[in-house]
Write a structure and sequence with these properties.
By secondary structure, this protein is α/β, with parallel strands linked by helices. Helices cover 31% and strands 21% of the residues. It has 14 helices and 20 strands. A hairpin with a 5-residue loop joins β6 (157-159) and β7 (165-167). α10 runs antiparallel to α11 and α11 (320-335) crosses α12. The chain is elongated, with a radius of gyration of 26 Å.
Length: 507
């Protein structure tokens, strides 16, 4: 039942001790970087480190400051430049939750660290601890493997008109290949039977379509592992209703973020879930919950999520023996009914404790093994190797065949805009269609379609022949002279003759 936790610390060998280095690791301390975070962060980090030290963890800790205090210094990334040197030196980051200020241009520190250090794989085991933690799915044991660096989490956003803002969804082949291969290697190494891919490629045929395509390309290389694909909405419904259908799930960033929280809550509590962020050059370990500022300073927060994240860290740095001691002591504490307020259940729990006393209860059980739960046994030795991504594909023949010109027109009527712009020409470029929020509204649009002040005007040559950038520059000058404010352009390309752009809804 707890096998997922036996596996989540696995990482490519480029960042693990191997072979004869393991013997040295037993005798030496491993350097790690620690951040206490915001809200309940300092309390649960103190509790977590107390347990690790008492269990015999061999750690050389370098502490850095992150979060609110750093944001308040005017650093929008939430981390000081000098702290990166610690992360590069240790390559291991144990991080408590932080509070990211709303608005004001502040960036998510989690996203910054993940992208900055290339931590492409987010691994989140979601395990049920029935009957001691309330759940309707006692046998749940699902591992979410989430792409960690791109999708809409690039945070590339623009306000373009009075009414419209945009967020760019970036999906790349290298990122898809790395995360999909990671999911299958994970399943192979730890005897998982199935890998499921979730996307929404019935709508986002190019971005999510690429993720699904790569999944189908890589899956046959693992014939012993069952594969399947679900559209994310019905897949999420099935996950919520019958999680026993799933084993390892691989997803793009946004879906993975949402559904890993959902999965953790279905299993029993988001507060019990930890996660590993794995890359070729480092790793970060954390709880998946937030900083809960309303609970700060009350000594009531459950440190389990961060503690189990730290267990993954111990496996990652080659201290699986300590990871087993900590994890089994934690399981024994849970089954002995020593619970914090968030999982306390009358008739099942025996004692309600706060953060400090929960940590003491775990420490008191170090060396003990659970009776109801299957004791944890962590694997040791070098992990299977994931080769770095190399672009071996033949470069496609790329041709520029048109341009989308986006306009800010506050009091616009599709037919009026169309009639004025159809006379605007540059070389062979002519207005082909106008869309508003993705729906085709000219020519032949529906009068019922609601339109904002953001218009996409597509110009192409009548025979879909190639055009030049000089023609686009000439076109923009003509659009401006016609009295329209253009706010951006998107080049329309074909790749080996196949369109690299979508049509408007209804086109």
């Amino acid at each position: 039942m707890v096998s997922a936790w036996n596996t989540a610390g696995w990482t490519p060998p480029s960042i693990r001790e191997k072979g004869n280095r393991l013997a040295t690791a037993v005798l030496t301390k491993t350097p790690i970087t620690v951040a206490y975070g915001d809200g309940i962060g300092p309390e649960i980090m103190k509790a977590t480190l107390h347990i690790l030290v008492e269990a015999g963890a061999r750690l050389d800790i370098d502490t850095i400051e992150i979060g609110e205090n750093v944001y308040n210094k005017g650093l929008s990334a939430g981390i000081e430049p000098a702290s990166w040197e610690s992360l590069r030196r240790t390559k291991v980051f144990l991080k408590a939750p932080i509070t990211t200020p709303q608005g004001g241009g502040f960036k998510s520190l989690n996203v910054t660290v993940r992208k900055g250090l290339g931590l492409y794989a987010n691994v989140r085991p979601c395990v049920a601890y029935d009957p001691f933690v309330r759940t309707t799915h006692p046998g749940m044991d699902v591992v979410i493997v989430r792409e960690n660096e791109e999708d809409v989490y690039g945070g590339i956003e623009h306000r373009q008109t009075d009414q419209v803002v945009q967020c760019l969804k970036i999906i790349s082949r290298p990122a898809c290949e790395k995360i999909v291969r990671y999911a299958f290697e994970y399943a192979r190494r730890y005897g998982r039977k199935k890998v499921t891919c979730f996307t929404k490629d019935n709508i986002m045929k190019m971005t999510d379509g690429l993720f699904h395509k790569v999944f189908e390309e890589i899956a046959p290389q693992y014939p012993e592992i069952e594969r399947e694909h679900w559209i994310v909405d019905i897949g999420a419904a099935k996950l919520a209703d019958t999680p026993e259908l799933f084993d390892v799930i691989v997803l793009p960033n946004l879906y993975g973020d949402v559904l890993s929280d959902v999965s953790a809550q279905i299993a029993g509590s988001v507060g019990l879930a930890g996660s590993a962020n794995i890359g070729e050059h480092g790793a970060m370990f954390e709880a998946i919950h937030g900083s809960a500022p309303r609970r700060a300073g009350q000594d009531v927060a459950n440190p389990s999520g961060l503690l189990l994240g730290a267990v993954l860290m111990l496996v990652h740095i080659g201290q699986g023996d300590i990871a087993e001691r900590v994890h089994n002591a934690w399981l024994k504490t849970i089954e002995d009914g020593i619970h914090t307020y968030d999982i306390f259940k009358d008739g099942v729990s025996k004692q309600k404790v706060g953060t400090t006393d929960f940590a003491k209860a775990v420490v008191a059980r170090i060396g003990q093994r659970p009776i109801h739960f299957k004791p944890v046994v962590y694997q040791t030795g070098a992990a299977a190797k994931i080769e770095p991504w190399h672009d071996t594909a033949k470069q496609a023949h790329k041709e520029l065949v048109g341009v989308d010109v986006f306009l800010h027109v506050r009091e616009g009527v599709p037919n009026e805009i169309g009639e004025r712009l159809r006379n605007v020409k540059a070389g062979t470029l002519q207005l082909q269609t106008i869309a508003n929020r993705g729906s085709s509204v000219w020519p032949g649009g529906h009068p019922e379609t609601f339109c904002s002040d953001h218009w996409c005007c597509r110009f192409m040559a009548p025979d879909n022949s190639t055009i030049t950038h000089e023609q686009i520059v000439e076109l923009l000058a003509s659009v401006w002279k016609a009295g329209y404010d253009f706010i951006k352009t998107e080049g329309l390309y074909t790749f080996d003759g196949q369109p690299g752009f979508s049509l408007g809804q209804g086109q």
